[in-house]
Amino acid sequence: MKVQFENQFKHVAIIMDGNGRWAEARAHSRVWGHIRGSRIVSEIVEEADDLNVESLTLYAFSTENWSRPLLEVKTLFSLLKKFIKKEKKRILANNIRFKVMGDISALPDETKSLIYDLEGLTKNAKGLKLNFAFGYGGRDEIIKSVNCFIKKNPGKELTKEDLAENLLIPDIKDVDLLIRTGGDMRVSNFLLWQIAYAELFFTETKWPEFKRKEFREILFKVNERERRFGATRKSNSLEENENLAEENLRHISDSAASVRGN
C-alpha cells in the first residue's frame, strides 16, 4: 500500500555502510559482509516504492573504494552483476527506472552490457527512479558538470541551474533525506551538490541488519521534522524560499534606489 507523507520524500539517498565491520565482528571476511548486505537491497527498494519515494539512490562503490583489497573490489563488481540478473524481471514488472551513475569503464564487459540493457529497457518507466552510484564521487560529478557546460557554452557564465542540469542524472533533483547505516557520521563524497539541504539520519545499524521496518521508521521520524530551507519557519521547498528571497532582494534594491533618488 502506498503511503503519503506530509513532507513528501521525492529523493532518498542511502550510504550502505558497515558490511565489512559486520562480517569481521562475526569472524568472517569482509567479502562475506558484502554478500549478506547485497540481500538487503531488494527489500529496501521495494519498501521505498511502497512509501511513494520518487527517487532512491544507493551508494554502492565510491571512487575512493578502489583503494580496498582487490578481492573485495571484485566481489562488489560481481554483486552488481548478480543484482541486475536477479532483479531484472521485478524491476520491469514494477515499472522502475534503473540507472547507474559514475565511472563504470573498469567493470567487466558483461556487467556493462547488463547495465546498458536494463537502462535502455527502463528508460521510459514512470515508477521509482532507482539509481546505483558505482565508481562515483561527488566532487568528480561537480567537476564533470562544470566541464560539460563549458564545452557546450564557451565563454558563458555558469549558473547553479546550469550546473544542476549537467549533473549525471539531472532529473532526480535534490536529496530530501540522506541515510547512512553503520554508525559513522559523514557524507563521504556522496551527492555533494544534491544534499545541500537534505535531512541527515545516521543509524548504528550496519547494512546487513538494516530492515525495511527501520527504513520506514526513519522516514516517519524525519517526516516530523520542520524543514525550513534557511527560513525562520516551515517551508515546502528550497525553490519556494529562493523565490521569496529574490522578491525580498528586489524590494530592498528598489528601496535603496528610491533613497538614493531622493
Note down, in words, how this protein is organized.
This protein is of the alpha/beta class. It folds into two domains: 11-225, Decaprenyl diphosphate synthase-like (Undecaprenyl pyrophosphate synthetase); 229-262. It contains eight helices and six strands, in the order βααβαβαβααββαα. Strands 3-4-2-1-5-6 form a six-stranded parallel sheet, sandwiched between helices. Helix 4 (109-122) links the parallel strand 3 and strand 4 (129-136). Helix 2 runs parallel beside helix 3 (70-93) and helix 3 packs parallel to helix 4. The termini are far apart. The mean pLDDT is 90.
Brief description of this entry?
With 262 residues, the chain is of the alpha/beta class.
Annotate the secondary structure layout:
Layout: E1 11-15, H1 19-24, H2 30-50, E2 55-62, H3 70-93, E3 97-101, H4 109-122, E4 129-136, H5 138-152, H6 160-165, E5 177-180, E6 199-202, H7 212-223, H8 238-261
Parallel strand pairs: 1-2, 1-5, 2-4, 3-4, 5-6
